[in-house]
Amino acid sequence: MRYSLKKIIHDTRLFLDLNHDAPPLVETLHDGNLSIDDIIRSKVETAARQVAQRLDNLLLAPGKPIRASLAWPEGVPGYGMAVLPLPDDCLRLLTVRLTDWRRPAHIITENDPEYRWQHTPWPGVGGNPSRPVAAICQRPTGMVAELYSSDGGRDVAIAVAQYYPVPHVTADGTVDIPSLAYDDVIRQVAMLTAETIGYANETTKAII
């Protein structure tokens, strides 16, 4: 759901007990020449990203579709590992399933201990159509998902692939935030703002 910066600033001020009806002295809490509203505004994208990184995938779904083409490094389309390039603005891979898989992939990263299992020579240890695995990896060309694995041949294609993009404020002054996570984002914006201006009330003391 899209929320306006105006609403986010208003709700963050309420959380911090810095509403616009407060005495003028409150407005002297600033960093350099930035007003409190400017500081709050500067924290929104960071806070939304931090919250999204720790949410369950179900709260971020359905996300945006990935429309890239599969590559087959082993040289035979439809067999072995496939590589799916991820969009430049990908923050989280939410789900991916190939047409010969029985279910969506279990998503890991190249830093997970499970990643090395995908490269063992023993069958059944790594991902397969009954128990597929998608490993998020950093390559010189960008982020990719290594998909383990397929045996369906040349007809194998992407059945579904969705991701959650990095949150950003658009030209119309709004940002996309999952509705169930809105309060968490406000709390995170408030915490980041309070750290910047050196301000704490009883609420922020509990979360900083």
Task: Please give the alpha-carbon distance between the first and last residues.
Answer: 27 Å
Number of strands: 9
Helix content: 25-40%
- Strand order within the widest beta sheet: 3-7-6-5
The average pLDDT value, as a whole number, equals 90
Write down the overall geometry: elongated
Q: Major β-sheet, in short?
A: 4 strands, mixed
Radius of gyration: 22 Å
Order of SSEs, N→C? EHHHEEEEEEEEHH
Strand content: 15-25%
The total count of helices amounts to 5
Which regions have little confidence, pLDDT < 50, spanning 5+ residues? 22-26
The helix-and-strand class reads: alpha+beta
Summarize the topology.
Blueprint (H helix, E strand, L loop, with lengths): L1 E3 H11 L20 H19 L2 H4 L3 E2 L14 E6 L4 E9 L7 E4 L23 E7 L2 E9 L7 E8 L8 E3 L5 H16 L4 H6 L1
Parallel strand pairs: 5-6
Antiparallel strand pairs: 1-9, 2-8, 3-7, 4-8, 6-7
